[in-house]
Design a protein that fits this description.
Low-confidence stretches: none
CATH topology of the largest domain: nicotinate phosphoribosyltransferase
Number of helices: 16
Number of strands: 19
Mean pLDDT: 96
CATH architecture of the largest domain: Alpha-Beta Barrel
Length: 450
């Protein structure tokens, strides 16, 4: 259940002001990303399911109201808040959908106080996981189908919830496993792990440490070989693998140094010992750039663990996500702010991979050959379909992402200088935008929606 205090203060003061004035007409808010971050050819929409769960459970508890009473809210505000629930409609893209700048990931249609109040919550639930999924998708592209990817970033994420969300986002776009045990349990993602340098150091020798771990966990023995001397560590791993009969189950992990050179030398040692089925796992501050260099060079690596740089989206750690009022009481509204202007009216995205996306009005018919991306997922404050299990929801999002990834034009998939799909307004949306913005510049009220 989401306490209604999971918001910014001004959402509460605005909602209270609306309620005091009886401003409860129907409002439409649109959530979208203004601009793609640098070196992003696309984004992946994630967090929709979480938004719906929070909206269904939104309420003020007695303790919440008691706290607000100490901070300037009147008794009539608190009485209104006590009975407030989300009763509106949500239209959204499917989780895992590839999206571009200015395209609504979701739209809320609800009484104004309700729709306003949930702004912060919805932005919070969408922004971070979408940023991580988009980063992870780039890592997937860098791996080029040649390297299994494992999410390793829990210890460096900005909080516990962020760690779980990062693991889910990475799995959604094709990572095969996570080190995060709770995320594994919750979403059905295979768990994976190796050992730490502290484990090696706790034993009298590296060889003794490898023997102990191999005996205790023979089916998942990945030996960390760079605590002291990497190639000596590989030789010790070879000794233990042969002693314990782990030839088809073991791996070695390289976590530092020149991973290209060391992976080649390690492969040569392993193959020379007849251990051609022992895998090489690499880690250590990897991202799509470093991984891409290794893959392009033909480094003999089988799997990679990506942590800090992935799970914090280090090169683009935020999205310019916004939640803007586009209609109130049937009146289309817009902003004119420099660099932050908005277009009015409830929207629809019409996708045609051949001709580019078109952002239009929700009332427009879908053009022939195009797909309308925003669908109704909540009515009267309840989901239109029963809530899926976390594992089922993740699987469905994966399927959607794979479908979109396969359709993206090659230039959008470039890692260094991508070219996003062309997105434009329909004639109807352009006409309404020009008309509303013209009225606003002239100081006149916005025209009624038609």
């Amino acid at each position: 259940m989401a306490t209604a205090l999971l918001t910014d203060l001004y959402e509460l003061t605005m909602a209270a002001s609306y309620l005091r004035r009886g401003m409860t007409g129907e409002a439409v808010f649109s959530l979208f990303v203004r601009r793609l971050p640098p070196r992003r050819g696309f984004l992946v929409a994630v967090g929709i399911e979480s938004c719906l769960s929070h909206l269904e459970s939104l309420r003020f508890e007695a303790a919440d109201l008691a706290y607000l009473a100490q901070h300037g809210f009147r008794d009539d505000d608190l009485a209104a808040f006590e009975g407030l629930r989300f009763t509106g409609e949500v239209r959204a893209v499917e989780e895992g959908t590839v999206v571009f700048a200015e395209e609504p990931l979701l739209e809320v249609r609800a009484p104004l106080p309700e729709a306003q109040l949930v702004e912060t919550l919805l932005l919070n639930q969408v922004t971070f996981p979408s940023a991580i999924a988009s980063k992870a998708a780039r890592c997937r592209l860098a791996a080029a189908g040649k390297v299994d990817l494992i999410e390793f970033g829990f210890r460096r994420t900005h909080g516990l919830d962020a760690g779980v969300a990062a693991a889910r986002s990475a799995a959604l776009v094709g990572f095969s496993a996570t080190s995060n045990v709770e995320a594994s349990r919750r979403f059905g993602i295979p768990p994976a792990g190796t050992m730490a340098h502290s484990y090696i150091e706790a034993f009298e020798s590296e060889l003794e440490a490898f023997r102990a771990y191999g005996r205790d966990f023979p089916d998942s023995a990945t030996f960390l070989v760079d605590t002291y001397d990497t190639l000596a560590g590989v030789r010790n791993a070879i000794t233990v693998i042969k002693e314990l009969g782990l030839e088809t189950r073991a791996a070695v992990r390289l976590d530092s140094g020149d991973l290209d050179r060391l992976s080649r030398q390690s492969r040569e040692l392993l193959d020379g010992a007849g251990l051609d089925r022992v895998h090489i796992f690499v880690s250590g501050s990897l991202d799509e750039d470093r991984l891409g260099v290794l893959v392009a060079a033909g480094a003999p690596i089988d799997a990679a663990g990506l942590g800090t740089r992935l799970s914090t989206a280090a090169d683009a750690p935020y999205l310019e996500s916004v939640y803007k009022l586009v209609s109130y009481g049937g009146r289309p509204v817009a902003k004119l702010s420099a660099g932050k202007s908005t277009s009015p009216g409830a929207k629809q995205i019409f996708r045609d991979w051949r001709g580019g996306d078109r952002i239009g009005l929700a009332s427009e018919p879908t053009p022939r050959g195009a797909e309308a991306l925003l669908g109704v997922v909540m009515e009267a404050g309840r989901r239109v379909r029963p809530a899926p299990t976390p594992e089922t929801a993740l699987h469905a999002a994966r399927v959607r992402f794979e479908r979109d990834l396969s359709a993206l034009p090659p230039m959008a998939l470039e890692l260094e200088d991508p070219a996003p799909l062309i997105c434009s307004m329909t004639d109807d949306l352009r006409e309404l935008t020009d008309r509303v913005q013209g009225h606003l510049r002239a100081g006149a009220p916005s025209p009624e929606d038609t």
